[in-house]
From TrEMBL:
Residues 20-87 form the XdhC- CoxI domain. This is Sulfurylase small subunit, molybdopterin cytosine dinucleotide biosynthesis. Coiled coil: none annotated. PANTHER family: ALDEHYDE OXIDOREDUCTASE MOLYBDENUM COFACTOR ASSEMBLY PROTEIN, MOLYBDENUM COFACTOR INSERTION CHAPERONE PAOD. It comes from Nitratireductor indicus C115.
Length: 112
């Protein structure tokens, strides 16, 4: 395997989550399950979060990661998964040309 492929694998959120769990950390995973409009990450993108608030990966390119990390802390505390939705309220944003329009739905659950 090439060095570039090794580095990509080392940054893979799922590989990191597995490593964290082997270290005994509590870990949650956030997964993009639906997008509409200009969401910067595709369906299936992941963000993994440990109980200390460390995270790796991305579900929005930085737009909502802080809110997702906060919700993941709650998921780790109470064990209840959550469906989160972020974005504009309706499709009229596209008619008026808002470049930041769009929606993203993210499912957050505990791993392990």
């Amino acid at each position: 395997m090439s060095e570039a492929m090794d580095q990509t694998r080392e940054r893979d959120p799922l590989v990191i989550a597995e490593s964290w769990m082997k270290d005994g950390r509590d870990v949650a995973i956030a997964t993009v399950v639906e997008t509409w409009g200009s969401a910067p990450r595709p369906v299936g993108s992941h963000l993994v979060i440990d109980a200390e608030g460390n995270f790796e990966g991305s579900v929005s390119g930085g737009c909502v990661e802080g809110a997702v990390v906060a919700e993941a802390a709650e998921v780790l505390a109470d064990g209840e998964p959550r469906m989160l939705e972020f974005g504009v309220a309706d499709e009229t944003a596209w008619r008026v040309g808002l470049s930041c329009g769009g929606k993203i739905r993210v499912y957050v659950e505990r791993l392990g």
